[in-house]
Each structure stands twice: as C-alpha cells, then as structure tokens.
Here is the input.
Amino acid sequence: MDSPKRSWTTFVFLLAAAGALTMLSIPAQSNDLPNGHETQFVSTLQELPEAETKSLYLQCSRAALQGTLGTMEIALCSIVYETLLQDIFDGDFFALLDWSRNH
Here is the structure.
C-alpha cells in the first residue's frame, strides 16, 4: 500500500486532472482538510461538468478497489460520491449503482 504522502500526492493529481483543484491549497503531506475547505470542495465539484464529476467518481472507485486510498482520499472521495448522488442522480442510489456498474 502507498504511504500516506504518496497516496495523497496521487489523489491531488487525480483532482487536478478533473479540474477540481482550483480551491485547494493544501500541502501534499497534509492529512486533514482544513476547516471550511469541505464546503469549497463541494462547491467546486458542483461547478464541474457532469462528465468530469463522473470520471472523478470512477477514479475514486478504482483506487478504492485497489486499496490505494489513504484517510484523506477516502474523505474526499466520499464527498465526490455524495455530490454525484445528490446533484447528478437526484439522490437515486440505484440509478448511480446501475450507471457505475456499466462503467
């Protein structure tokens, strides 16, 4: 399993690729989302195009299956999941599940 620093760096790259890093100014060695940044992160996710949010979720899902996520990545991926569920799938868990199984 990756070290927390390496795992966090990988996830920061993943976020950058999705365009969601505009609001994050967190050092790579950080294991905590600074106060107030969760709200900013959610706002940034909500501004992403649907395809990018879905891509980010799938990347989180793959990393979770590989066991390469640290505590911070798990927290951020959880926020990605909730945003996807509520904003794109209107809270319909089964619709999200069906979609994710096909991707």
